[in-house]
Each structure stands twice: as structure tokens, then as C-alpha cells.
Amino acid sequence: MRRILLTGAAGAIGSVLAKQLPKENEIWRLNDIKQLGEPGADTIEHMSGDLTDYDFVLELCKDVDTIIHLAGQPKEGPWPSLLGPNIICSANLWEAARVNDVKRIIYGSSNHVNGMYPTTSILHGNESTRPDSRYGVTKVFGEGLASHYSDKHNISTFVIRIGSFQLKPRSLRELYTWISPRDMCALVRTGLEAKYRHAIVFGISGNSRSWYDNSLAFSLGYEPTDNSEEHVDCIANLVVDPANPIDMLQGGGSSGREFEGDLPYLLNRMAAREL
User: Fold this and answer.
1) Is the dihedral of CA 266, 133, 110, 87 positive or negative?
2) Coil, strand or helix: which one is 164?
3) At 4, phi and psi to the nearest 5?
4) What is the pLDDT of residues 167-222, one digit of tens each?
5) Where are the beta strands (DSSP E) in the chain?
6) CA neighbours within 13 Å on the CB side: how many for 87?
7) Residue 154: how many CB atoms within 10 A of its CB?
């Protein structure tokens, strides 16, 4: 049977995947820095531990066929809070995967790797990254690991630039970035089953409003069920301020936090395609 390692199994996304994705002929090894308790089935393994400990990660990746890497600090913060969870953990995991001959890694990246693009841009996944935060920079690093280990060590890599994982969209921005729990499960299952060498896809539902061309995900078999437009009547504020980077850049609040740049210059530069 195929053994699948899921890191960050106690997190918001990981806990949903751990409950809904396992199926017959799969053994799921769940990892989190938090204690996970006792597994409820013979095909579920729990290995709690810190991914900054390389010796632990080497053991964690033994006899694993596929890794779904979601562990990390999920929000913006000072560098010391991000370096261990998002940089060292990822570097350890990819190297341990290589040593243990893991064949496939699904990496939970973020829409914030490109949050400094204007809301008028449509992204395809092959553009230069423009991270909107220190958190976004760490996800660019993770994507670099995916590219490197795919090119040099033949590990199939499926990079998901996760949007806004919520039960329902809560803002105008999330009408563009929302992904429902069941569509997240469907997209990860696509990553588990499809054939690819290195793929970058967008973690969004089948939203009518979108900043992302998700054609590659669709071609690999992703069939989203939900559409954020079904919830538009629940969004209180649909007005944008053209002078506010939160409204004009795709990263929203992450783009606007600590912003000291020249917004008109950025927008004009993008419009002129001087990327």
C-alpha cells in the first residue's frame, strides 16, 4: 500500500485532509509538532515531532511514497518566528525526502508569493514571484526547493498556491481567492493521482471572479464544486479605494501592512508590463 505523509496534520487545512482524504490501499502517516493522540485505524500512523530536528525528519520520511507538506507558520510575523517553521523545516523535509527516495511531494504554498501584483492582473503560475510579506518570501523559498529537487533529483512536485481556505468567503478579496474545504480536498487528491514532474497550481474553488488562470490544475483532473459567487450577497463591502494598497494589490492586508512604497508607480509599472 502507498504510504502518504501529511505534515501539519493538526492545522486548519491538515485536519480536514486527515479526516476526509484517506481511502483504501493507503497508509497515512500524520505529523504535527502538537501531540495527535492515538490513531483511530490500522492504516493511520501518528508521528508527532519537530521538523527542525533533521534526525527526526529522516525517520519520519522512511518508507514514504508521497509527502503533503503543510506544516509551518501560516501567518506574517518577525523573521525569528518564520525561520524555523517555514525555512528550516522545509529544507529538512526536502532533503530527508531525497535521502529516503520519496517520489512525490505536494507543497502547500500561498497566494502571498504574488501578493504585490495588482488586482487587474491575471496570473498563470509562470510569472516572477512578487511576495507581499516576510511570510510570502518563505513560501517563495519553499517553491524554490520544489523546483530544485524536481529538476535535480527527479521528485515530482505539486505546488499549490493556496488562496483563502474558509467555509465561506468573508470579503470582496476572498471572492477572488476563496477555496472551500471540499475543493481543497479535491485539489490535493489531484496532486496525489495526476502525472506531472513540476506543477504550480492555484488553490481556489471554481470562482467566477479570479485573479488566477487555473488551466493546469483543470488539465490534471481538478474539478472544483464550489463558486464564491454563490456567497456574494453575504459580503458587506464591495467598494474599493484606488489609493489603498489593500484594495489595489492582490495580497490585500498583507500587501498593505508596513507598506511604504509608491502605489501609483507600482500599478503603472505593471500596466506597462515592466515586470
Assistant:
1) positive
2) strand
3) -115, 125
4) 999 999 999 999 999 999 999 999 999 999 999 999 999 999 999 999 999 999 99
5) 2-7, 26-31, 44-46, 66-69, 104-110, 156-162, 164-165, 178-179, 198-203
6) 12
7) 11
Which residues have a Cβ under 8 Å from the Cβ of 64 and sit 6 or more positions away?
3, 4, 5, 29, 97, 100, 102
pLDDT (tens digit, 9 = 90+) per residue, 51-108? 999 999 999 999 999 999 999 999 999 999 999 999 999 999 999 999 999 999 999 9
101: left (phi over 0), alpha (psi -120 to 50) or beta: left
Q: Any idea which residues carry the catalytic annotation?
A: 135
d(CA 86, CA 123): 24
| Residue 275 grid cell | 515586470
pTM of the model: 0.96
